[in-house]
């Protein structure tokens, strides 16, 4: 399927990226081109083939114990925050 | 200055050990070279004071026998590695001002061996790109030039790391490789770039792009230097559950150049239409050189090769869209200004819209699309199945006794900045055609320079090995390096 403006706007909304009208036009064309590349996968018969996942690749099966190993460094956690206040991150109001 | 020209990590190690050169004088020389190379835009951060302080420490250790394996060796690292307290932004505006409060595992291993950090290196934004042009710092420039002096791309995404080695601005660098981001720039700059087996090195503290594909690795002047750095950065890390609990071999010690009886596969599917004759010739020369060194050359088939690019361009964006969801302007990095009356939705969207460049937006949107309801099966699951078929192609040839595979690294030499991908992103993606399969299959692969184009630009050959066989791959590369005897260097046009 081709990528139209409505779909680009929907994807932008899901991806939380603000798009201007010229952006929508540009990305519709470019994403359409990338989707045509992706559609080459339709040529491959994958019946009976399992999806490759992390654990299948190279047999990694490492698990760590679920225990607290560190903590109590609020300053370090907040030191990169754009506008920290009284030991908290600040966000926009999310309820009316 | 003259001894610097042919200096490598292994030679510097000897000079520092014997006391012929001090860490401080070596560091000062390289800092001068970096200062004089601003036109290359390879470094995005220079850490001169820290480097000199560390060099003094290294010199003070000379007699105590407590020196690390890389004591006094000047190193640069890609801007994607978190370095404690230093600006780290993966060449993105959205990480403006970010100074991590922790250190990546692989870089901490370098510092534990007393390597000296000279600074951080330019790259494509979040490692998404093949030309360095998506960097917020502007592109690094390839030290190699054509006679018309048009600025050429150093490749990407680790373009700054490769350019810095080609211009001799440091002795070793670290890059990362998700679809060819170490090997392609290494080929474009006439240097050695190694992507290890997935799981060989810890990804902890490396800014994530596509977690099932990303690996850190060295870019160096020689194969020996690659072996030295790889050994140090390898190994299990409790903080990365995908890092392997395997013994790390002594890669340098295993370099003997003896490849007699080794079976080298030449995949027919890599003979793609439109590949320039000089790249075919380079490949044929490489085949002859390995043959005369006693290797057996065998034609092989990897039938799903042509689906590697579409598979990669589904899976890498899917993982990227998930990894990059964390950049929301709340906990760190760039935060957009809002107009009165705007709320949380505008806050997220404007922050990400102003903070990400267009290539990153394209990939986040493609990733969001292939993971969204209705398309997940058709694209994401389908690509994971094809990925399995691509991996099985490699498993089959290796289980039939092939020891390694020889291919060109790139379908072209370095191209002019601004010449590709302006209108069509896919045109740029085609650069990765020979490098992506090793990432999808999780295999170790190295690019080494073996010749020049008729116009005088470097070209590289790639050796891909079975999982965990870096020692074999390095040893074959070591022999090919000797046989091809590539000694050319770019003319130093960039000095101020």
Please provide a written account of the structure.
The complex is a heterodimer of chains A (96) and B (496). Chain A is mostly helical. Chain A has a domain at 5-42: Histone, subunit A. Chain A is built from 3 helices and no strands. Chain B is of the alpha/beta class and 496 residues long. In chain B, 37% of the residues lie in helices and 12% in strands. Chain B has 16 helices and 11 strands. Chain B has helices spanning 2-5, 9-18, 23-35, 48-60, 105-112, 159-166, 183-189, 223-233, 277-292, 308-323, 344-355, 358-371, 376-399, 425-429, 436-441, 470-484, and strands spanning 43-46, 74-78, 116-121, 172-177, 192-195, 215-220, 263-267, 296-300, 404-408, 445-452, 458-464. Chain B has an 11-stranded mixed β-sheet with strand order 1-3-2-4-6-5-10-11-9-7-8, with helices on both faces. The longest helix of chain B is centred in the C-terminal third of the chain and has 24 residues, at 376-399. The model of chain B has no long low-confidence stretch (mean pLDDT 96). The interface between A and B is large, with 51 and 76 residues.
